[in-house]
Amino acid sequence: MSATFIIGPIANTTKKQRIAEGIRKAILSGKLGPGDRIIETQLAKELGVGNTAVREALFELESKGFVRRIANKGTFVTQLTVDDVVQIFRARVEMEGLAAELLAERVSAQDVDLLQKCIDQMGRAADHNDLEGFCHFDIEFHTTIWHRSGNRFLAAGLENMVLPLFAFFNMTCPSGSRDSLRKSVQQHAQVVQAFRDGQDVRKQMEAAIQHFRREKLELLFKA
């Protein structure tokens, strides 16, 4: 299946970034599905830009795991197998647990407030069964922890590995029920409480990720 969609007018000074962000948002929102082909010439024509700008944007997205290029075939939205997902989660639980632990060593009231705001927004989205909005603030919650951990290499590794995982789940998982979304909010709230208490932060983060892993594998693969 080839994908066609409109991102909107592209400013000359930020062509590559805006094209990449538009494609990224389309993937994260589920408008583009796993395995969808992105045709450079077609997208360039729709946006009124040159092929080079589109190609550079796709190279950037490929480096972050959102798309993959296959020689002589084209560029496709990333599609993950059961084994891919299991391996990512195995690495993620260790790396994100470490990120939470590092942030706990330096956490400020502002950090906790930012995380709490994400949870509040997730809760509102859950009440309206708004999966797209829920996922947006779920991602913001996790990236806040990664980038405030103080280790930029850890943050970059998590971003490259986990954001495509979020994208894949958004594309493939059926909408969750309000109850399941609210349960996820509770899991995240326990992580924030651990930051407030100054103890068991890594344990709570790892527990939240393991819960997410079990739920998503069951939904996707009946594992």
Q: What is the arithmetic mean of pLDDT?
A: 87
What is the count of β-strands?
3
Order of helices and strands: HEHHEEHHHHHH
Percent of residues in helical segments? 55-70%
What does the overall shape look like? globular
Amino- and carboxy-terminal Cα gap: 27 Å
- Poorly predicted runs of 5 or more residues: none
Beta-strand percentage?
under 5%
Structural class: mainly alpha
Q: Can you summarize the main beta sheet?
A: 3 strands, antiparallel
* Radius of gyration (Å): 18 Å
Secondary structure tally, helices: 9
Strand order of the largest sheet: 1-3-2
Keywords:
223 residues, mainly alpha, three-stranded antiparallel sheet, 70% helix
Describe the structure.
- With about 220 residues, the protein is mainly alpha-helical.
- It is about 70% helix and about 5% strand.
- The chain is built from 9 helices and 3 strands, in the order αβααββαααααα.
- The protein has helices at about 15-30, 40-45, 50-65, 80-105, 110-125, 130-145, 150-170, 180-195, 200-220; strands at about 35-40, 65-70, 75.
- Strands 1-3-2 form a 3-stranded antiparallel sheet.
- The radius of gyration is 18 Å and the shape is globular.
- The mean pLDDT is about 85.
